[in-house]
């Protein structure tokens, strides 16, 4: 007899974990708590990625200035 285990619980656990991590990263953004709470998860991820890219870019520019 083949047992078919439901993956519904595992899928929900994964989604909950992803949403928790997005909330954690969103809390690190330099924006007000009110603005953070209004952001969807999609907008949060876009803002987080933009913030990381800019941080890396400006850090590289800062390192070039120090090396000069």
UniProtKB/TrEMBL annotation:
Pfam families in UniProt: bHLH_NPAS4
UniProtKB keywords: DNA-binding, Nucleus, Transcription, Transcription regulation
Can you say what this protein is called? Answer: BHLH domain-containing protein
Q: Which organism is it from?
A: Poecilia reticulata (Guppy)
InterPro entries in the record? bHLH_dom, bHLH_NPAS4, HLH_DNA-bd_sf
Claim: DNA-binding is one of the keywords in the record: yes
Molecular function terms in GO for this entry? DNA-binding transcription factor activity, RNA polymerase II-specific; protein dimerization activity; RNA polymerase II transcription regulatory region sequence-specific DNA binding
Domain of life of the organism encoding this protein = Eukaryota
Q: Could you tell me which residue ranges the BHLH domain spans?
A: 2-55
């Amino acid at each position: 007899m083949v047992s078919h285990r439901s993956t519904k619980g595992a899928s929900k656990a994964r989604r909950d974990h992803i949403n928790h991590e997005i909330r954690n990263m969103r809390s690190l953004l330099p924006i007000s708590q009110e603005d953070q709470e209004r952001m969807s998860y999609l907008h949060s991820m876009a803002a987080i990625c933009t913030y990381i890219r800019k941080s890396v870019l400006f850090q590289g520019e800062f390192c070039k200035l120090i090396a000069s």
